[in-house]
Amino acid sequence: MSNQDKTPSNQTNINWNDDQMRSTYSNVANVGSTIEEFMLLFGTSQNWNGSAEQIDVELSDRIIMNPRAAKRLFLLLGKVLKEHEEKHGEIK
């Protein structure tokens, strides 16, 4: 299954091919960086009582990005979060 964005003729058309995409749920994320790359770690915590002395997080995915891609993600997340809060209220 693929999705094509409609763009004016002077812009690049991006074909989003999701044939090999997988979906993973995450309720925990962490980020690290070096001068050359950003590492995003995603996982899940099943600490339901919220008062444990130790919280175990099962990491499931690591995404490694170059700084320019990380900056684009930062800008895109900011835009989408702003739109979400305008529609659904402030996230606290």
What would your notes on this structure say?
- There is one protein chain.
- With 92 residues, the protein is an alpha+beta fold.
- It has a domain at 26-86.
- It has one helix and five strands; from the N terminus they run βββββα.
- The strands form two sheets. It has a three-stranded antiparallel β-sheet.
- Strand 3 and strand 4 form a beta hairpin.
- Pfam families: DUF3467.
What is shown here, in short?
The chain has 92 residues and is α+β, with helices and mostly antiparallel strands.
Relevant terms:
alpha+beta, single chain, DUF3467 domain-containing protein, three-stranded antiparallel β-sheet, 92 residues, DUF3467
- String of helices and strands: EEEEEH
Poorly predicted spans? none
Q: Please report the total strand number as a whole number.
A: 5
Distance between the termini: 36 Å
Mean pLDDT: 90
Overall helicity:
10-25%
The share of residues in extended strands comes to 25-35%
Q: Largest sheet, order of strands side by side?
A: 3-4-5
Helix count?
1
Organism: Vibrio genomosp. F10
InterPro entries: DUF3467 (IPR021857)
Protein name: DUF3467 domain-containing protein
Pfam families: DUF3467
